[in-house]
Automatic annotation (TrEMBL):
InterPro entries: DUF8212, HET. The lineage of its organism: Eukaryota, Fungi, Dikarya, Basidiomycota, Agaricomycotina. Residues 239-269 form the DUF8212 domain. This is Vegetative incompatibility protein HET-E-1. It comes from Trametes pubescens (White-rot fungus). Residues 29-119 form the Heterokaryon incompatibility domain.
Amino acid sequence: MPSMRLLSSTNLHVEFNLFNGPSAVTGGYAILSHVWQGVEQSHREMASLEDANATVDDPRVSIKARECCRLAQAYGLRWFWIDASCIDQRNSAELSEAVRSMHEWYAGASICFAYLADVERPLDPALMDIRAAGSAFRRSAYFRRAWTLQELLAPRRLVFLYIDWSELGEKHDLADVLQEITRIHPDVLTFRRPLSDFSVAHRLSWASGRDARRPEDKAYSLMGLFGIHMCVRYGEGVKAFRRLQEEILKMIRDHTLLAWDESQDTRNPSPLGPFAPSPAAFKSVSRLVAVNFKDFVAVMGPLCDASHSREPVSLTLLAIGSLLANRYQVLATHRPSRPPRD
């Protein structure tokens, strides 16, 4: 696990410290989940304030850093993490390691603060029903950004915050309305069921309505949902999502990955091939489930004469098409060659 840089909430002055991963942070830490707004305060700027021995309430310190410091203190946590301020993005190696470790860092946090910059706290208590149709909470940009998907899923405890940094509610208590907004099962949000209970296509469908500033982040932000660690190559564009699918196919025996629907992604036309052009192609396939091999053989065995053999049967991909446009997934079965007998 690469080192993570945290900010102190107890020192009156700006102070960074390096830790060898979440487990090395005695007493835990808080972490911020948010949608970037224009230019965020960089690590370089915060480091210069640390060198100048600036206090946390110095007006040069961003409001996000000051409020995170206050909230971490309120929850009895000495350290907190903000992506823009704690990652030196000028260092490509550090940025790459941070991107690959992001899911673990959010999962390892004692608490995550999800800041909603576009949700105001209503002055009239009668208008505070965030579950109401058309509420600002439901319409928040937070639910349309790529990175905030894993930031929503990874932490066990997540508190949503209004624009004024007051508390809106906790993820655990809002699982029902979050399901309506994100289509993510409440059992996933509340950690009653692991991500692995849901097919690859189902998990990718959660990202279908989300966007990112950089096309690569549509792929990199999903690595943690599948336990994938692949090289980060900013500049490769949409190829990143293809690489992600290749890695998923290597790691997880779940071919729902190949059952995407090209009609859902008109912005990224792709030549016929096994992999989807973007997560948008999985929007309509959330109900797909992976069938284990024994069940598959029980149903398909009589058709391919596989159920009558005790030998293992493997599936070889001959051609993959999308669900629509009269193109279908084609699978062939074969028995592996026997070793020569004496």
